[in-house]
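Lab notebook, bench 4. Still working through the backlog of constructs that have no structural model yet. Next entry is a single chain of 107 residues. Request: give me the structure tokens for it.
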Amino acid sequence: MPIKPENLARYPRDWKRIADDIRGRAGQKCEGSPLYPECRANNGQPHPDTGARVVLTVAHLDHAPENCKPENLRAMCQRCHLTYDAVHHARTAYATRRANKLTRELF
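Model written out:
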């Protein structure tokens, strides 16, 4: 998943190395997610269920980019990462919409 510019400062300078280490630990395969615990899609190959080319990402299980302890990081394919983050994304999107609405009402 691309890092949003506004979150870039929350990641350590050596994030690329950390992420590469996590993908290496996983053998370049998805480590699964709660919804798809048996997923082992191979990085760069067609996903066995979706057919899309797998881009192996690294998920922060607690959604905090500052916490880069190995036990908080998991290699995930796009499907697993997006479904894992779905509730978090919905909450942050709601908070952003609400803040924008309040700002518009003030001005």
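Notes after review: The radius of gyration is 16 Å. The first strand starts at residue 57 and ends at 60. Flag for follow-up if needed.
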